[in-house]
Design brief:
The complex is a heterodimer of chains A (about 220) and B (about 450). Chain A has twelve helices and no strands. Chain A is an all-alpha fold and about 220 residues long. In chain B, about 60% of the residues are buried. The chains are: A mainly alpha (about 220), B mainly alpha (about 450). Bound molecules: protoporphyrin IX containing FE (HEM) and iron/sulfur cluster (SF4) (2 copies).
């Protein structure tokens, strides 16, 4: 029974998750693009690659904008979080080996020790975000149940991953949880506020274009 | 997870909002909202709402939030949550009381200043969302009375202040007469075809501040400019319809304005010191009409003054000696990038300049813009209380010596006057034109 479940989440479910993520993301991007063409054609008239990159550049550089300097802790945490969030799953040796085994493709991987620390950093950052949601009243006011659930959806794959790696109690269950929760996280990206990953370049880029091209001013 | 039902919070009584509400049924509300979302809610609306990660980082941008003890109800994303957020959550099935409250939030708690765009990591345009909410209110007929009256004036007279055509012409002739005592043969050329400059002002200038037209006439004459004003509608470049959500009317207004300039075959439009009018002509109205930028060259007074000094068309007799500070109006600075040019003009004309902090794009809004002051007396107390940070910022500039606040925008002027009075700041507010008029060599 457990064995069946395990092979399902390690096999077909992985395919399903990646498919939902990629097809879902493409669907969101394309349908949004078409909606924009129909209803927001203004965007295309004012979008400027130069000013979009100018703005995005200022926002992917830590402390390049005024508000990042006003919230140094949040800035450090946010950049650490997103950096580790991408690096760990992609460059974890165990993941690379899985890809190697299934598809015979592989790439550079990081030492397990580094991955372990970075995963813990992600968890720590999630705790920081949780703390903000609970203790900062301007964040609490904006928070609804879904915000906690989504934060959990991001944190659980890392918590269970660390758990399984260290082979703490019931680590086999932890491994199943790790795989399932990772798959869930991937699948909800296109359909929740995690879709900010897809849309961030466009929102920032468009506002950067309006500010740079029309308003002759900075937006950072 | 604060449970806050905005409908339970008392709204400020406003006849326009109350009477508008009385005429509605909940079914109409739902139908109109759904139609708005279907017809006009595009990708921007969707993405802005969905991409927001509820991080609260935009809060520190907003003077309403900063001034109201950091009450999260006044944060940019907080205002979206209380208005469009609930509408989306309830799929448009909201009560009439809800709409009345949403109208108050969208019309009187956001100046559409877009400062928050510079604080949100995604550049989410809260002003766009508040305008979407305002347009829903407009379609439902639940708009604060005072600003709606202005919009009515626009649609009847094509100016903001119910100024009749003969009153407009009389005012110009009266100012011409007055100014001739100071400068012989001074002219305010009406209807001069082929003039280089089409000069336009906002409705309140002939109504309440005719001396500004006088000063401009003096500046134009001293600088030897070839200019004109129309004797027909189109002289008013202001636009409250763009703020009530009446986009159709906003387009008509700009059409009349541009067409007056074209009928007179002028080379370019120079506009007086107003911020919202600049936004309407430079950024918004042209789009409603299908023009990417304005159909003929157009500059704000700041840029015009800058040109006059750069080209040595004006000479300063004696620099203005009382220490001044500059309030960067959102619509011409964050909306037009004219901050350095304004400083150039100040350096040419004033001997002592004190920066206020924050400044340039990051300056705090005056809390009058975006049509908020035009919502009238019912909200004026809330407006000045909602901008205590501005008072603190001014007090700081004052502590460093500033006595005069230069505000090259009509709305800012009125808003800052209220703030200076309410917080006993004892500072004087001037236009750049006031300073220039005072210190140039008029011979
Ligand atoms: C290129 C892609 C991405 C960009 C540019 C991006 C950007 C951002 C930004 C600007 C924020 C606002 C808070 C801050 O960090 O200053 C944020 C928050 C967040 N991001 Fe991302 N992100 C990306 C991808 C992702 C992905 C893939 C996930 C998870 C699957 C994710 C999870 C989160 C979470 C959970 C928060 C909210 C923190 C909170 O609860 O306050 N991000 N992201
Ligand atoms: S007043 Fe300005 S800073 Fe505040 S929400 Fe509106 S646009 Fe944003
Ligand atoms: S800063 Fe942007 S993403 Fe964060 S709460 Fe405000 S609008 Fe939403």
């Amino acid at each position: 029974m457990l064995h069946d479940l395990f092979s399902f989440v390690r096999g077909p479910m992985v395919w399903i998750a990646f498919t939902v993520f990629t097809v879902g993301s493409l669907y969101r991007l394309i349908s949004m693009w078409r909606l924009a063409k129909k209803k927001d054609s203004v965007i295309f008239n004012y979008f400027s690659i130069f000013f979009a990159i100018r703005s995005i550049g200022h926002w992917i550089l830590p402390f390049a904008g005024v508000n990042m300097r006003k919230h140094p802790a949040m800035t450090v945490v946010a950049f650490l979080f997103h950096g580790c969030l991408f690096a760990v799953p992609i460059f974890l040796s165990a993941h690379v080996i899985l890809f190697k085994e299934s598809w015979n493709i592989s790439w550079w991987w990081m030492p397990d020790m580094a991955a372990d620390i970075m995963a813990m950093i992600v968890i720590g950052c999630c705790l920081f975000f949780l703390g903000r949601r609970i203790f900062l009243k301007e964040v609490r006011y904006l928070t609804s149940v879904s915000d906690y659930l989504i934060l959990a959806a991001v944190a659980v794959p890392f918590i269970s991953g660390v758990w399984a790696y260290h082979q703490w109690a019931a680590f086999q269950a932890a491994l199943v949880i790790h795989i399932v929760s990772g798959e869930i996280m991937l699948m909800i990206i296109p359909f929740t506020k995690l879709s900010h990953m897809l849309f961030a370049p466009f929102t920032r880029g468009y506002m950067g274009s309006e500010f740079g091209g029309v308003r002759n001013s900075k937006d950072w | 997870m604060t449970k806050q039902s905005p409908a339970n919070i008392a709204t400020i009584p406003d006849e326009g909002v109350d009477k508008g509400g009385q005429r509605l049924t909940p079914e109409q509300v739902t139908r109109v909202i759904r139609r708005m979302f279907e017809e006009e809610g595009g990708a921007r609306l969707k993405i802005y709402i969905e991409t927001c990660v509820h991080c609260g980082l935009c809060s520190d941008a907003c003077h309403f939030y900063l001034s109201n003890n950091k009450d999260p109800k006044f944060s940019p994303a907080g205002k979206v949550k209380q208005t469009l957020g609930i509408i989306i959550q309830k799929k448009g099935r909201v009560s009439i009381d809800f709409i009345k409250k949403a109208s108050e939030i969208a019309f009187t708690e956001c100046n559409l200043c877009k400062r928050c765009v510079m604080y949100c990591p995604f550049g989410i345009d809260i002003a766009y969302l508040m305008l979407f909410m305002r347009r829903i209110c407009h379609k439902l007929g639940v708009v604060p009375q005072y600003i709606q009256d202005t919009a009515h004036s626009h649609s009847v007279t094509m100016n903001q202040m119910w100024v009749k055509e003969d009153e407009w012409i009389d005012t110009l002739q009266w100012q011409e007469d007055e100014a001739r005592d100071e400068i012989e043969n001074l002219r305010i050329p009406l209807e001069k075809e082929g003039a280089e400059i089409f000069y336009s002002v906002i409705g309140p200038e002939p109504k309440f501040r005719a001396q500004l037209i006088y000063q401009t006439a003096v500046i134009m004459n001293v600088a030897g400019m070839d200019w004109t004003m129309p004797a027909t509608p189109g002289w008013d470049n202001s636009d409250m319809c763009m703020y009530t959500g009446d986009d159709e009317m906003a387009a008509r207004l700009k059409k009349v304005h541009f067409e007056a300039a074209m009928r007179l075959k002028t080379k370019r439009i120079v506009m007086g010191e107003c911020g919202h009018a600049f936004r309407s002509v430079y950024d918004v109205g042209n789009r409603h009409l299908g023009w990417k930028m304005s159909p003929l060259p157009l500059i704000h007074a700041i840029e015009f003054y800058y040109e006059l000094f750069r080209d040595k068309k004006l000479r300063v007799k004696q620099k203005y000696d009382i220490p001044v500070t500059l309030h960067d109006p959102c619509n011409v600075v964050r909306g037009g990038g004219l901050h350095e040019l304004a400083r150039y003009v100040i350096n040419e004309t004033c001997s002592r300049f004190v920066e206020m902090h924050p400044n340039r794009e990051h300056n705090y809004c005056c809390a009058a813009g975006g049509g908020v002051i035009n919502c009238g007396p019912p909200y004026s107390k809330k407006r000045v209380i909602g901008n205590k940070v501005k008072a603190d910022q001014l007090a700081d500039a004052k502590a460093r010596g500033a006595k005069i606040i230069i505000a090259p925008c009509h709305n800012c002027h009125a808003g800052l006057e209220d703030i200076v009075k309410y917080y006993d700041l004892d500072m004087e507010i001037k236009f750049l034109g006031d300073i220039i008029y005072e210190c140039i060599d008029k011979t």
